[in-house]
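User: Could you check the structure of this?
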Amino acid sequence: MTINKQKQEKYTNQRELQSKTKSLINGVKNGERYIVLRYTEPVGVLIGMDEYRYLLSKKNCKHCLESIKKSIEKASEVT
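Assistant: Sure, the predicted structure tokens are below.
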């Protein structure tokens, strides 16, 4: 599996996560990524199992870590 570097992360908050769980899970299943915000702070990420397994298989992969770091920084700028 290759990670789509151009895929845009979406944002969701705690309330939406509770009220739209089924829709968000279906989105993740279809390759969408969500950064979960609690109030305005990024606290987690929703990704599909294939992407999760890929990231686990690349332990300490510099590219993967940089990608995650950039996503967190980007989320922090939005809040």
